[in-house]
Design a protein that fits this description.
Elements lengths: L8 E4 L2 E2 L2 E2 L4 E4 L3 H6 L3 E3 L4 E3 L4 H9 L13 H4 L1 H10 L2 H31 L3 E5 L5 E6 L2 H12 L4 H5 L5 H13 L7 H17 L4 H10 L10 E4 L9 H4 L3 E4 L6 E11 L5 E8 L13 E7 L10 E6 L10 E13 L6 H35 L3 E2 L2 E2 L4 H32 L5 H32 L11 H8 L9 H14 L3 H15 L5 H23 L8 H21 L6 H11 L5 H7 L5 H12 L4 H18 L1
Parallel strand pairs: 9-12, 10-12
Antiparallel strand pairs: 1-4, 2-3, 5-6, 7-8, 10-11, 11-15, 12-13, 13-15, 14-15, 16-17
Length: 654
């Protein structure tokens, strides 16, 4: 039944009683010890050869044990988000909500199952660039995964852009869209990024399409629910010098094509996200008849570009390379060379910044949506894990310190969520012409506030959530580190925290303080109805005192606004979120957890700007000490002069 041999070189190929053991199996015994111990066993029944396992290996296998940790599950984020559901019930008429709530529940289920699986595929199969074909011809083709293509189809079918522009539910259409994006973004395989720019592009097309057939056609594509007709858009602003100072860094020029209605663009676009998009809006400087261009902000004009021509060839665009990024690896981000790219002028000459700012407003709101979506997913998974992970004889959910950690993460997520929902409601009112001046002022100042605050918080929240999983939070196979890497782009893209903090001050100056007045009046309105409730009275008092003290300090010490701009922005964010949570908790639609969230939030530090003033961290001497600490007095003289100049300038404006 068995035949054995212990040859040093073994090559077996023969038949035994009708059993064919071809093709041959060859084994190389490399040492004398192996030669002594190796026994090639030919098993008649199993029809294969094998080395018997060493006894110690078998013993080791028995000692491994049978324990396996049950993994956390991504569940339906709509059904599990208590604040989201109660907010919709409060702000959307019952008959209107009934028309699309079933869709939200079903979409939440899809996101937790099929769409989540696709997002993992997008991460595992990142895009790649094929510069040349086998015969040396330049093709510049970006190859994306099948899962990425399916995300495109899902985005179209689910109306993730179309819902906001069909306006079937009037001002609530934008809220409907944002809720679906909240469910989708964290499991979209980063397809949320091209959707953000597509939404912004659709907004520009809608505002400027009169008399421009190419924009009208583009708008139809951008808002289509047909996957084969649906377009996505890019936003090409960053050039070699990079940064948020677009006026100083834009070198791309536009030359008018003789006897035609279009221009040719020449320049280098250093960082273009979602480069597989169908179109893009970009900035360039028009070359005058004298061959010169105007520098600065007044020299920038916005243009519309289609990435490929009717034959499917690139529009005189070279894809130089794909960027190697920390996160967002699922999405192609490339460096481009425009060498005579056909483009159409959209804005008036020199009005490019103001025209494209419409797109920036939308993309910054999307940035906040993505931040909240990632926070919600991370916190839900950490909470789910706490009910499955047992340590020191107890489940994590039974340990008070761990529960306190999760409660803080949940509170931060709810704060970001209610801020984003408020902004979606304000944008919806504006889009159907129902907004008041106060609403428009609020939207203007809250856009940078929400973007910078949620962008910073999502990184902190996800980092803490990874700790909730211990070592598993650091293992790539779990998918958790991907959340952290992808979250890190959110405080950077569309303006860093410092840039947006200064944008808030710019907004205040341009409006002569009107946006702050609207903010204060709205906070008073939000809190007034809740102040009569005993459980919320203390939270109301803290919130009203916080906004009064913060605005008074800004007027009394305007010279501190620039060095304290970040703390001032965080104060505005925390105070306004507190007012929103209090107002929500006082509603008949609120549940017990809504009341607790409002109370807990008001106990946070709502006034970091006031604390900074009391600690003298913004005065001239402290700024000089910081400069010496960082630069060893190298630039202290320049900094001292700058601090004084800024202080005087802010005093004059205030």
């Amino acid at each position: 039944m068995f035949q054995t041999t212990s040859l040093r070189n073994i090559n077996v190929s023969f038949k035994l009683k009708g059993f064919d053991f071809s093709p041959c199996r060859s084994f190389r015994v490399t040492s004398k010890r192996q030669q002594r111990n190796a026994t090639l066993v030919m098993c008649k029944k199993s029809n294969h050869f094998k080395f018997p396992r060493h006894p110690r290996q078998q013993l080791s296998g028995r000692n491994v044990g049978t324990f396996t940790q049950e993994e956390p599950r991504l569940t339906n984020m709509y059904l599990e988000d208590v604040l989201l559901q109660s907010y919709l019930k409060k702000h959307i008429p019952t008959l209107v909500l009934a028309k699309f709530e079933d869709d939200l529940m079903e979409f939440g289920r899809k996101v937790a199952t099929d769409i989540y699986d696709l997002s993992l595929e997008c991460e595992q199969q990142p895009p790649r660039l094929v510069s040349q074909n086998a015969w040396g011809r330049r093709v510049d083709t970006i190859i994306t995964s099948e899962a990425w293509k399916q995300m495109h189809a899902i985005s179209a079918k689910e109306g993730l852009i179309a819902l906001a522009y069909e306006r079937n539910f009037e001002e609530f259409s934008r809220v409907y869209q944002v809720v679906k994006l909240l469910l989708f973004s964290s499991a979209s395989g980063l397809y949320s990024c091209p959707l953000a720019m597509t939404d912004g592009a659709a907004k520009i097309c809608e505002m400027h399409e009169e008399g421009k057939l190419y924009l009208k056609n583009a708008f139809m594509r951008l808002t289509s629910k047909n996957p084969t007709e649906f377009w996505t858009s890019g936003q090409w602003m960053t050039e070699r010098r990079g940064g948020s100072d677009v006026a100083a860094s834009t070198d791309t020029v536009a030359k008018k094509e003789e006897n035609e209605d279009f221009y040719r663009l020449f320049g280098n676009k250093w960082f273009t996200s979602a480069t597989d998009a169908n179109m893009a809006f970009t900035l360039a400087r028009i070359v005058g008849q004298d061959g010169q261009v105007m520098q600065g902000t007044k020299g920038l004009t916005m243009f519309y570009v289609e990435v490929r021509n009717e034959q499917g060839e690139l529009n005189n665009i070279e894809i130089l390379k794909l960027k190697n990024k920390l996160g967002t690896r699922q999405m192609p981000t490339a460096e481009l060379m425009l060498n005579g790219t056909k483009a159409y002028q959209v804005s008036a000459e020199g009005k490019g910044i103001s025209a494209i700012s419409t797109m920036l407003t939308i993309t910054r709101i999307h940035n906040a949506v993505s931040a909240v979506s990632i926070m919600r997913r991370a916190v839900n998974m950490a909470s789910n894990y706490a009910s499955k992970r047992r340590v020191f004889g107890h489940l994590l959910k039974d340990l008070p310190l761990h529960v306190k950690t999760l409660a803080n993460l949940e509170m931060e997520t709810r704060g970001g969520c209610i801020l984003v929902l408020c902004m979606s409601r304000l944008l919806g009112l504006q889009e159907v012409g129902k907004s008041t001046k106060q609403d428009d002022d609020l939207l203007r100042i809250l856009t940078p506030v929400a973007k910078l605050y949620t962008g910073k918080q999502v990184v902190a929240v996800v980092s803490e959530c990874l700790e909730c999983f211990g070592g598993q939070g650091y293992i790539e196979d779990t998918g958790l580190p991907q959340l952290f890497r992808d979250a890190q782009v959110l405080p950077i893209w569309e303006g860093t925290t410092n840039v947006l903090s200064l944008d808030i001050l710019r907004c205040i100056n341009i409006s002569n303080g009107a946006v702050l007045q609207s903010l204060q009046e709205n906070i008073l309105l939000l809190v007034s109805g809740a102040s009569r409730l005993d459980r919320l009275s203390e939270a109301c008092e803290k919130t009203l005192n916080a906004i009064d003290q913060t605005l008074k300090a800004a007027l009394t010490h305007p010279q501190f606004l620039v060095p304290g701009a970040r703390d001032f922005a965080f104060s505005i964010a925390r105070i306004f979120i507190s007012a929103l949570l209090i107002n929500h908790a006082s509603s008949s639609k609120a549940v017990e957890s809504d009341i607790m969230t409002a109370i807990f939030w008001s106990q946070k530090c709502l006034t970091p700007f006031i604390n900074g003033i009391h600690a003298c961290t913004y005065d001239e001497k402290h700024c000089m000490n910081e400069c010496e600490l960082v630069f060893n007095k190298v630039t202290s003289a320049n900094t001292q002069e700058m601090v004084r100049e800024i202080g005087k300038k802010m005093e004059r404006k205030c």
